[in-house]
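User: Quick sanity check before I run a bigger batch. Here is a single chain. Can you write out its predicted 3D structure?
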Amino acid sequence: MIIYIDLVILINFIIDTLLLISVALLLKRKTKFKRIIIASLLGSLSTLMLFLFNNSLILLLLKFFISTLMVVITFKYENFHYFKDNLIWLYIISIILGGSIYLLNDQIALTNNGLVFSSNGFTINLILLLIITPFILYKYIQYQKSFKNNYSNYYDVDIYYKDEKISETGFLDTGNKLIDPIFGKPIILVNKNLIKKAVNTFFVPYDVLNNHGMLEVFKPDKVIVNNKINKKVLIGLVDVNLNGVKIILNTEVI
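Assistant: Done. Predicted structure follows.
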């Protein structure tokens, strides 16, 4: 039996990329594709550990450490709850994928030797991995997104101000009915750390659930929520961070 290490690394890279993309789609995480590539490269190269260590406990700990690094590289670290969700779903999707591939292999393959690369060509295991994996991930994500949409209200949000564009995932809070009493415009709450450049701000009064005060806001050029353009809207600068979501949408902009 001949094992081609380069092919093992390539297949692991493809799988790691698909897994991280799946987590991003499922949890609606905004991340750059190059971060996914870097994390997947790290994960695929970790396959070499199988040839360096024979101790199962050491391998288990190293794999957990590397998967943790992959999650942090891909999605950054916002807070522990945000990090925990990313890591748990990475493992859940990995288990579902691994179980599905094993089941298909057990039903179809004539022999069951795991992921084997023979000198005579690709085995049924590799063929299943390359062909079935994208389909399994697609169907699983499709189902999970449909399920989650029944219980959550997440939207793609693009905020434009002069030459700056902020792209994030926003959460629709049905309790956010903030309206600027002066101009009558709805207010979207945005984490102030998302604003990297200087903006012309002013203060408007607010009164919500027996709490009142002055809210710092600015007027963007436009805000696009799931392809819907809003120009008559204000951005309120706050410290909001809801499980990694830093934009709280107003019901008036949906």
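The first helix runs from residue 5 to 27.

User: Great, the batch can go ahead then.
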